[in-house]
Design goal:
By secondary structure, the chain is α/β, with parallel strands linked by helices. The chain contains 12 helices and 13 strands. Helix 11 links the parallel strand 12 and strand 13. The radius of gyration is 25 Å and the shape is globular. Residues 1-19 form the signal peptide.
Amino acid sequence: MRKLLPALMMVGLATGAAAQSNIVIKGAVRGDLKGYHKVYVFGDGIKEDSVEMKDGRFTISIPWVKDAIPYLYSAYDAKMRSGPPAFPVVVDGPGTIYIDLADVTKGLRSGAIRGNRSATAFQAFEEGREQLKTDLRAAVNERFRDKPKNDSTSNKAFLQLMQQRLIPYITNFVETNADAYIGAFILGRYQVILPPDDLERLYNKLGPAQKASAPAKEVAARLNGMKKAVTGAEVTDFTLDSPEDKSITFSSFRGKYVLIDFWASWCGPCKASFPYMKQLYQQYRGDKFEIVGISIDQEKAAWLNELKKQELPWPRYWIQKRCR
């Protein structure tokens, strides 16, 4: 018996550790599901899966992977509600998360989340952002009440006001949560709209663990890129592949003025600019000027097919092979 007890304790500890390496999402939904009982989970680094709700309850268990964000959606929301049904559950570690939805008609994403600080904080952030959006829209509609509903002037005023109010909202949130994963996540999510000074200041407020997260690393790379993008700074050399799979380094264009054009086959505005760029190229091409087109398409086939349509006269390269 004395030999058996330590062995049983070790088994118990191993089982507990295995359970804690998972994210377990438990949901309770009230209301008529209209026959749509499935809940789905997916995300980068997460295997797509689904479970069946029984008596309005479901449990999803997935391995916890650092920086992987599970997205949930229900079959009910996909069939019975408008708008995107999927929403992220921003977890910062393994454990159990609870979602309680009192009214199925309001959508699974509106269910109260508890059990994980970052997941709970993200929901609070989103609710505050939506309320801010609603209040500002009402204020702009009142200001332009004599204008048509989708008037461009009122829409422009709304977007400007939203950005003015959203930036301090994001800033306050990140400062409050700088010691948690959710702080780094929100900073990474909104890094594009934040002024560079605010972005760097908020990044510096993050703790070492948060700076080691994927969102914070993206912010660090952006800050580094902005510092290198100032007038007079030298572009760090890189190597990309041509349509013929020939590698070329950027330094091979040394001595020329180079216009780097990032584009993709799915980018309408990018392709709309090509006729004007061709005129520019025809006028200035020569020993001192070059255009370098860099595709960010995920699939090489999409890039090559679009190249046939566009007939771009300058050097073209694909970035994804080098990023994989």
